[in-house]
Amino acid sequence: MRSLRPSVLVQATRHTARPADRLINDLASLDVPDCDTVEQGRTYIVFAPRRRRLYGSGRAVALAILVCLGVLIGSAWSVVVIAFLPIAVLPLLPLLLDDRPMLAIGAVLDDDGSTLLTAHGRAWGELAAAVEAYLANLPPAPLDLEGSAVPAPALTVAGGADPPVATRV
User: Fold this and answer.
1) Nearest Cα to 101, choosing from 126, 127, 77, 122?
2) pTM for this structure?
3) What is the mean pLDDT of the chain?
4) How many of the other CB atoms lie within 10 Å of CB of 28?
5) Are the C-beta atoms of residues 108 and 115 closer than 8 Å to each other?
6) 58 to each of 12, 102, 145, how far by Cα in Å?
7) How far apart are CA 19 and CA 116, in angstroms?
8) How does DSSP assign the chain, residue by residue?
9) Would you say residue 121 has pLDDT above 60?
10) Domain residue ranges in the chain
11) C-alpha span between 7 and 75 (Å, rounded)
12) CB of 150 within 8 A of CB of 113?
């Protein structure tokens, strides 16, 4: 079944100097109408359109159980009625055929010290525009003279008799 919401395929990868947790927090704070954050972790976020709460999995299962009970009670009248038991799957079909676009964005620390941001999925309307604008305005990872990203400063531990203190070199 086709989605009722027109969507575009998004596949993008960017290297940036911005930390991964800040990238995910920035994306989570995007104010896009008709869009929910379905799942969010430390290094990823998943967007999907808002669902209407009218018909969901709870109602579908309740209807399927009612149909099963109706068929089983009807089978007491005639055994042939049990042939209608597969009809109990019908209330679940709208959920199986629901094709909602989703967009997943992940941010991880790369080997060279920059952050690798990857976006994959289908975006719609304002979300596509917001994510495209955000990706276009990301600060690029700093490059050295050879054209590769400059590694982030190493975290070293300096200490003596006192507990170790983390410092940047």
Assistant:
1) 122
2) 0.62
3) 80
4) 12
5) yes
6) 36, 22, 59
7) 9
8) ---SS-EEEEEEEEEESS-HHHHHHHHHT---TTEEEEEE-SSEEEEEEPPPSSS-HHHHHHHHHHHHHHHHHHHHH-GGGGGGGGGGGGGGHHHHS-----EEEEEEE-TTSSEEEEEEEEEEHHHHHHHHHHHHTSPBPPB-TTSSBPPPPPEEEE-SSSPPEEEE-
9) yes
10) 7-51+100-168, 57-96
11) 47
12) yes
Dump pLDDT digits (tens) for 48-100: 887 766 888 899 999 999 999 999 999 999 999 999 999 999 999 988 887 78
Instruction: Say which amino acid occupies 70.
Output: G
Confirm or reject CATH 3.30.310 for domain 7-51+100-168, answering yes or no.
yes
Pick from 45, 19, 168, 46: which is nearest to 108 by CA? Answer: 19
Q: Which two tokens stand for residue 29?
A: 């704070």
- Residue 44: what pLDDT? 93
Give dist(CA 152, CA 110) in Å, integer. 10
How confident is the model at residue 87, as a pLDDT? 94
